[in-house]
Automatic annotation (TrEMBL):
One Pfam family recorded for the sequence: FUR
Protein name, as recorded: Fur family ferric uptake transcriptional regulator
InterPro entries, per the entry: FUR, WH-like_DNA-bd_sf, WH_DNA-bd_sf
SUPFAM superfamilies cross-referenced by the UniProt entry: Winged helix' DNA-binding domain (SSF46785)
UniProt source species: Wenyingzhuangia heitensis
Alphabetical list of PANTHER family matching this protein: FERRIC UPTAKE REGULATION PROTEIN, ZINC UPTAKE REGULATION PROTEIN
């Protein structure tokens, strides 16, 4: 229940109505132990039709509540935004780690800071995907 109150506030803060579908989708993403693959969302939310799932995901992506943790040909992974992201900008300071064995994707903080600068441009978003073998699969 606490989670539902938290998400209701979060949605209202971004001028989104706290609809039952949005709350349900957020709860599923938040309760998953790593970034959730789209195929898993479809399984857990069978009562959502394709269009509803797509629209609900996009509303949350556009408002800085969730982000795509990894996009591959096989699946797209979604995760909650930990940092304060807004409707204008996703401001992530973490990287995405994908295990080549179990295909799990997680949002992880690096032990060193990553500074990327490109001359003459204003960077709005940096996506870094790192792959390897996770501690469970080593
Ligand atoms: Zn974000
Ligand atoms: Zn693994
Ligand atoms: Zn992430």
């Amino acid at each position: 229940m606490d989670l539902e109150i938290k998400f209701t506030d979060l949605l209202r803060d971004r001028n989104l109505k706290a609809t039952p579908k949005r709350l349900e989708l957020l709860t599923v993403i938040a309760n998953y132990n790593s970034a959730i693959p789209y195929s898993e969302l479809q399984k857990k939310l069978k009562h959502f039709d394709r269009v509803t799932l797509y629209r609900t995901l996009n509303a949350l992506l556009d408002s800085g509540i969730i982000h795509k943790a990894s996009v591959s040909t096989d699946d797209t992974y979604y995760a909650m935004c930990k940092e304060y992201c807004t409707t204008e900008c996703h401001n992530h300071k973490h990287v995405h780690f994908k295990c080549v064995e179990c295909l799990e994707v997680s949002c992880v903080d690096t032990t060193n800071t990553i500074q990327i600068q490109i001359p003459n441009v204003k960077i709005q978003q940096v996506d870094i995907e790192v792959s390897g073998v996770c501690e469970k699969c080593i």
